[in-house]
Amino acid sequence: MTQYTPKHGLQTRIVQPTDQLTPGWESFSVPVARASTVVFPDLAAMRALDWKNDAQWRYGLHATPTSIALAQRLAALEGGNHALLQPSGLSSISNVYFGLVKSGDDVLIPDNVYSPNRDHAEWLAKDFGITARYYDPMIGAGIADLIRPNTKLIWLEAPGSVTMEVSDIPAITAAARARGVITAIDNTWSAGLSFRPFDHGVDISMQALTKYQSGGSDVLMGATITVDRELHLKLKLARMRMGIGVSSDDCSLILRSLPSMKVRFEQHDRSALALAKWLKTRPEIAAVLHPALPDCPGHAFYQRDFTGAGGLFSVVFDARYTPQQIDTFCESLELFSLGWSWGGAQSLAMPYNVASMRTESSWPHRGTLVRFYVGLEEEADLRADIERCLVALG
Predict the structure, then answer these.
(1) pLDDT at 17
(2) Three-state SS for 37?
(3) Which of 15, 159, 179, 374 is at a distance of 20 to 30 A from 26, taking alpha carbons?
(4) For the whole prediction, is pTM greater than 0.85?
């Protein structure tokens, strides 16, 4: 870049200053590199850029040093080789669809899938000519019977983020690989900490970084993580063509939170499991759906494949309570706010009508389900809050 001297006018010197970062500067934090335009030292350097090279950037939309630092750390966390950032978890799901599926293709989706994923698939089926079919999340190796010649993608979610069934992921991925079908998992529940999808045959791990990675309930971001380079490049090209980018400031917030994520996750896990075990003793509760408990569907797979559960689990109330009574229960909680999502410091609760969310697998419970997210408050205080509201149910 041209080095301007004081002979230039004040405005020119403000717009194009001569100052540079102090050589040798080093700190624990990654500098925030904000950019739309990326400047090149010469045309030869610009023309030598290869968009396939993850260590390079050509425009701020696609990458900055800050976003690349975050992507590299996320890939390393899950044992992947590549990571792409998107502005939300749902955007990451969309990136997988548009990178891999075209009109005439078939997609298999678990019946306990994150609802916006189901909505996305229905939209693509209606307006873009794909086929979206749903399968029982406990199907295991039986998924092979559902694979068609035009099946291109199988989604997994383990456990289901509302109903908590844990699928036999290695059985499903083995069947998919035998037929050349790509598998993608929504791995947000485990945060990439307690389940390593690539060790179990999964091709793509999708994460909502909005959750534990952020830890503050104040950042929207997602990621798709892969091992295979060619698969990564397909997703990368789709992301580039759709003009998907992320804020370097948001990347810096997640980079700041990553070092404490495992410690926070383990604390969420301890408190949530303690509450889940206590709730199993309550007469108001018909079932506790926590993968670490023996009677949760898929518990054996959880024991085999997972190392922790974090702060999210669900309960089913006794059928004698009406949905309206359960709404009152949730609204009466003082330390559990009403809200979707999880991963932050504050606890959350939300009632669900599970029967209305399924098409292919039966729901065995008659009572209303409430999902709890257990934050970083004192577990004893959360227990007292729930107990007070349970007593009020009568």
Answers:
(1) 64
(2) coil
(3) 15
(4) yes
